[in-house]
Amino acid sequence: MKDIKFSARNVQVYYGTTHAIKDVNVDIADKTVTAFIGPSGCGKSTFLRSLNRMNDTIDICRVEGDILLDGEDIYDKRVDPVQLRAKVGMVFQKPNPFPKSIYDNIAYGPRIHGLAKNKTDLDEIVESSLKRAALWNEVKDRLDAPGTGLSGGQQQRLCIARAVATQPEVLLMDEPCSALDPIATAQVEELIDELRSNFSVVIVTHSMQQAARVSQKTAFFHLGNLVEYGETGQIFTNPVDPRTESYISGRIG
Amino acid sequence: MSDQHILSAYDRDLESIQALVMKMGGLVEAAILDGAQSLETRDVELAEKVRANDKAIDELELRINEEAARCIALRAPVSKDLRTVLTTLKLAGSLERIGDYAKNMAKRTNVLVEMREIPGPDASLRRMAREVEGMLRDVLDAYIQRDAKLAEQVREHDHDVDQMYNAMFREFLTFMMEDPRNITACMHLHFIAKNIERMGDLVTNMAEQVIYLVTGELPEDSRPKADSTSYISKVD
Ligand SMILES: Nc1ncnc2c1ncn2[C@@H]1O[C@H](COP(=O)(O)OP(=O)(O)OP(=O)(O)O)[C@@H](O)[C@H]1O
Ligand SMILES: [Mg+2]
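A: This is the predicted complex of the input protein with adenosine-5'-triphosphate.
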């Protein structure tokens, strides 16, 4: 049994009066890739964002229940969300590079968190992060060019490089491959598998094949409920809940 | 849960593979009955027909394999759909082998015509073949209706076939001891009985596969084997 990284207990998330996450209980294991799947609007992104308090930035959003990271309540008043997000990195559904150079997009986090002693260190972090995100070869000759000038798929990989640069303990990825071609997708999946030896990775994906390929655990969400959570192999060969079955096999629900 | 896929072409693919299995099953059923009858009535022409039809059975298996591979490649089936596709492959494999046994049975008609008559075994062989054919019919019904209970009943029938075989085995020994001139014919008849018994085993495997298809799990208790002939050394 792997250690538990995140433990969610009776979690509710509301946007105003919309009850977007309904009483979710789940343990997310360390050194494991966990996939969140489910139809559009079922609350995957909402739940993912609640794991590093990204929902704090949405005024009407309210989170109830307990979310523990390594046994500590991340919604405790003493927790600094900025520190939390350095530990729990995130890659968003839409690529959102800073309006800065490619180099600075990646160097920013390590700089503010003091991860590099000098310029050589920083150069190294930038290079290795870009390599891990399978972007290095495409951008190594133009690190000073603005990140926003890259193609959509390249921007997404830049954001992945930025997220791994701070060496988070957990990486949350919201459909990280939706804008990537099959080669870049395979490279990101390879990266995810590699990250698993040290980190916990949670990935939201609409591709059943991707969930099956990269994850060891799968959680199926439906209308804000966590309907089924188990070994990925079991979910894709013999799910217990008929709603899971309908969804993964492309049936009319 | 609805049985329909959002992509209706997917449903058509799955249905068409399953229809091929049913068609193959029908041909194999006929092969068993015709094979058994050709033996009993020493009907060389009917035996020839069984041999010729075996080609059609083999071709159907190839087609099922191709369509299943295509479906896996193009549709990446999961869960129940994956089990459906895997099951068609397994069933087609078993059907092909049952067809081979039926063909083998028919082939021996030509030999038996030349042999001296032995009263008794013909009727027993026919009963055994009928029993297996009935099991096959039920297993195909269970398959298409996703009826695990019926498949379970088929499994239980395998015991009867095994017992018929054991009884025949003893009967052959008696004939051979009575008169050594019976040996050649009895050896052939024994092979036929053994083949029918093997068909029963394959039908039982098919039943287990249907249970897997419906429930997602193979039945746990492996069937008690009732072939006790390995212990029989003498008949008293
Ligand atoms: N900022 C917001 N303000 C108000 N309601 C929101 C907000 N974000 C999400 N919601 C609502 O919460 C529910 C869950 O949305 P969420 O974005 O978590 O879904 P999702 O599962 O990630 O869907 P998708 O697969 O389309 O990304 C939806 O009903 C959505 O309309
Ligand atoms: Mg989302």
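Chain A has one domain: 4-248. Chain A touches chain B at residues 208-209, 212, 236-239, 242-243, 245-246, 248-253 (CB under 8 Å).
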